[in-house]
Amino acid sequence: MLPTREKAEEILREAEEYNPGPWGNHSRVAAHCAEKIAQGCGDLDADKVYILGLLHDIGRKFGVRHLGHVSDGYSYMRSLGYDEVARVCLTHSFNNLTTDEYIGKFDTTGEELQMIQDALGAIVPDEYDRLIQLCDSLAGAEGVLDIEERMADVKRRYGSYPQKKWDRNLELKRYFEERMGRDIYLVTEKEVFRP
Prior knowledge:
- The chain is mostly helical.
- About 65% of the residues lie in helices and about 0% in strands.
- The chain is built from ten helices and no strands.
- It has helices at about 5-20, 25-40, 45-55, 70-80, 85-90, 110-120, 125-140, 145-160, 165-180, 185.
- It starts with a helix and ends in an 8-residue tail after the last helix.
């Protein structure tokens, strides 16, 4: 089940009141990118991906956490009955479905980490998972970013970026560009879109 677009926007606004920061606009940019790419593909639900993009980082509502935002978002969305959103709260950080490639602090309890690993082990990724993973890698707080520049920035901030994760992000970019037959930056209005 999914919230409506309006309800998703309300959930994000409320979450930003609890924990203000650039993550809110990053989520809006991810939602914009997902919607535009879905429209370009023609066979994906553009409203659904907008909602998924908007709420993929909703776990940040609960404070400054790294891996913890994944378990917080997953649990929060499940508690509201939004299982499709809960899924992308989980999958957006793991484009190879393994916590081994997580970039950031492992600031979860043992139970939270086990829950993430168990849930990941039960998922077969679909087009919606892949699209939100890609859009998470394109979205900055100020607008659409070059994917390689964004990954290089993450590498500078955290000291590393797993090569398999880097390569997978570039594969996802190529995959969706091939599906649309268009450059991803043109589709997502990189030069003009601002949240």
